[in-house]
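Quick sanity check, Tubulin polymerization-promoting protein family member 3-like isoform X1:
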Amino acid sequence: MAGSDVDMAELAESFKAFAIQGDTKATGKDMTNKNWAKMCKDCKVIDGKKVTGTDVDIVFSKVKDKSARTITFDQCKTALTELSAKRFPKDDAAQDKTFALIAGKKPGTTGVTKAVKAGGVDRLTDASQYTGSHKERFDAEGKGKGLEGRVDKADTSGYVGAYKGSGSYDKKVKK
């Protein structure tokens, strides 16, 4: 099943990149149907004529384990082999061509919302123009200080919370 012209390490790296896309808990060892469909779409396996999104979903369901919701890298190669027969019919190197479409690719960011820097937005997000107590929330470079910049820390050094006479106990007690 190994392609002769395609580097399997690159294919594995692409699989891992697409597998972790959009999921903070993903390890990259298995891929969900959503990420599988994104990989097929971004890498042009889905051409809209011979291979459609429905075909991709059907092949995913066919190759995954019965109770599983994800596919492994080996199952992904099996699914791509099955799709390659539809994508490149009557071609002996169909599998290699399909693997080559994916090898070395990373998930795209088309359609992702960009940060707007127009009108009053850039003025509002410029920390150097802040005054008063808001100015204390940022350091010299404009980076936020986090909790230290927002919350007044209580002095808990006394033996009772908010004790104002810290360190004066020994002075009050006569020996």
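Posting the structure with no commentary besides this: The chain has two domains: 4-101, 113-145.
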